[in-house]
Amino acid sequence: MSKALTLSEGPNGLQILTIDNPNASMNVLDMALLPEFATVLDLLAEQSPTGLLIRSGKPDNFIAGADIKMLDACADAEAGSELARQGQQLFARLAALPCPTMALIHGPCLGGGLELALACDRRICSEDEKTRLGLPEIKLGLLPGSGGTQRLTARVGLPAALDLMLSGRTLKPRQAKQMGLVEAVVPTSALLDVAATLLTQAAPKPGWLARQSLRWPWRGLLLSLARRQAQRQGQGHYPALSAILQAVEQGLAQGMDEGLRVEALQFGQLLMSGESRALRGLFHASQQAKKTEYQQATPSPVAAIGVLGGGLMGGGIGLVSVQQAGLDVRYKELSHEGLAQAMAYGKQRILAQARQGRLSQPQVRRLLARYSGSLDYRGFARRQLVVEAVFEDLALKQQMVAEVEALGTPLIFASNTSSLPIAQLAAKAAHPERIIGLHYFSPVEKMPLVEVIPHAGTDPQVVATVLALALAQGKTPVVVKDSAGFYVNRILTPYLNEALRLLAEGQGVAHIDGCLRRFGFPVGPLALLDEVGFAVGAKVASVLSEAFGERMSPPDLVPRLQGLGRQGRKSGLGFYRYDGRGGKRQTDERLPALLNLPKAAPLDEPTLVRRCLFPLYLEAAQCLAEGVVADAAQGDLAAVMGIGFPPFLGGPFAAMGQLGAEAVLAQMTALAQQVGERFTPHEALRAWLGLRPGA
């Protein structure tokens, strides 16, 4: 009947609608599917079957959302609103069918896919790990535009609906059932039989608490609390947060039709916003990062890896390898205590997920069984890849390369170095073609980025294998050129150094960090240094200063603090002090006296922010000119995912593009005259801005 939709007869007079776009591996809602769906609804309205079951014909996804390119093609806000209205009308027709309807969800059911499922009377889902449900439009600077703000709220209640839409998080099957979003979680093979049986029974109603949350006065109180939380969360940088709240509130106060009107209007306006354009640019860049040219080589299969070092980084690498990639992980440590710590890292987090209902006991047992460890290399010869995650010391890392090569097995050696050039690690290797950099960010299980760093002699198949591993671990890999600091730490260091200079000039720690947090960074630069740890930060700064000279040399504040026994958060003292349960960050009033700092009037916020940002921009442009990143889009993606550069700006290159070449040049030139030559725009920046030399 159509290219993507097929109607077939099911048991007991049921009709089964199968969605399977033959031209794509994932089902998405696009302009071709909408008229086909309308035709199917016409036919169903005429036939009046006893019930309708909607399922995907894909083996691993339901509907992953709307086609982002379809959104990008909208010329103006009205076109975006009209697109939303088309989706609303289509799903309203589905909801109005005279027969009971049920969505059979297996795999990702996100965005418009979940809005379609919400338009059905009922929903069940598979218990498969691939199954995820959510409305993540906020991550694109948008709100659900096809009725999601209205139907989700009615189904699960105000607190759960707002949490899901304002965070953009996705739910596992058990979480979706607990929330009341689906009524059953079953094996994939049983979806059709269970659905047919359930349709003969009465549908469950929303829970009592969910219903109460939609009534006055609870409704007003919950919306007021959500507004305050949204303001803290977005700092005024994400207009989609308030748009979601407005659409929900209008629907509850004046009825669904009014809520849908506001939803469509806001969707169009948000689609044209700079924030949404920036966030959609990051989405496209992340998709491109998963299709890098190195994947043209055939990856080698990896079923088991070894991890050298079981600290925070090694523990996190092991956890994502076990839980996301389904690999066996074997640790090597120097002591039984270190080995126990390495094993405990993953165990504690897996058990915590079980307590939250996110993992079943059989799943917990299977995951924990994938861990093993020893004080030597026993069992490592049966691994396909080894990840080194020890201290940033070249001689130590080269020694580990030699020890792994001595096993006599053709293992890939991936180093989690944060700054040392990979060519130096491979310089003494018997098989340098198997050496590669794989730079994770802490905490590994939360940070989405990994830098993949081949040196000039790395085998392309090794690169392909490591890229496949990173994707299996749930990471977004960005391939960067082998050079000191790679990309992320290289652009981060001048940013941190400038914050240290501001501190040395008498600006307060809280003022510096507060300005950058309000600008949109998740933490301020000095708090970030505390989190990283002074030993690691000093080592990276030393490597970069040796490689690039004066522009990477920081003030001597960190060594002075180290001389006083301060090492950052892990020691309880850094630029802040960490007191009480959980080590809560506190301002340390003793710091100015300890460092003999002057006291200066607080610098105005825009100037302070520019002073920290512009060195980062200049280094990013230099990296692009040197080919450290393939293009500006990948540079933006790495900055957002690696250092928390404000996503609503789209990354350093996108932010400069929004500011405009003339403004960037003028503001940098002014700072160069007022503060120092380090702010002078160099030719690499001018070239990226499209300015002729000397302009």
List keywords for this structure.
695 residues; alpha/beta; 2-enoyl-CoA Hydratase, Chain A, domain 1; Rossmann fold; N-(1-d-carboxylethyl)-l-norvaline Dehydrogenase, domain 2; globular
Tell me what the structure shows.
The structure is a single chain. The protein is an alpha/beta fold. The chain has three domains: 5-272, 2-enoyl-CoA Hydratase, Chain A, domain 1 (Alpha-Beta Complex), CATH 3.90.226; 293-479, NAD(P)-binding Rossmann-like Domain (Rossmann fold), CATH 3.40.50.720; 488-554 and 599-627 and 660-689, N-(1-d-carboxylethyl)-l-norvaline Dehydrogenase, domain 2 (Orthogonal Bundle), CATH 1.10.1040. Helix content is 50%, strand content 12%. It has an eight-stranded mixed sheet, with helices on both faces. A six-stranded mixed sheet has the order 1-2-3-4-6-8, with helices on both faces. Strand 17 (576-579) and strand 18 form a beta hairpin. The termini are far apart. The mean pLDDT is 94.
Q: Kindly report the average pLDDT value.
A: 94
Share of helix, binned: 40-55%
How large, in whole angstroms, is the Cα Rg? 27 Å
CATH topology term of the largest domain = 2-enoyl-CoA Hydratase, Chain A, domain 1
Can you count the beta strands?
Answer: 18
Strand order of the largest sheet: 11-10-9-12-13-14-15-16
Estimate the strand proportion: 5-15%
Instruction: Indicate the low-confidence ranges by residue numbers.
Output: none
CATH A-level architecture of the largest domain: Alpha-Beta Complex
Shape designation: globular
Main β-sheet description: 8 strands, mixed
Q: What is the number of helical segments per DSSP (H or I, 4+ residues)?
A: 30
CATH class of the largest domain: Alpha Beta
Assembly classification: single chain
Cα distance, first to last residue? 61 Å
CATH superfamily descriptor of the largest domain: 2-enoyl-CoA Hydratase, Chain A, domain 1
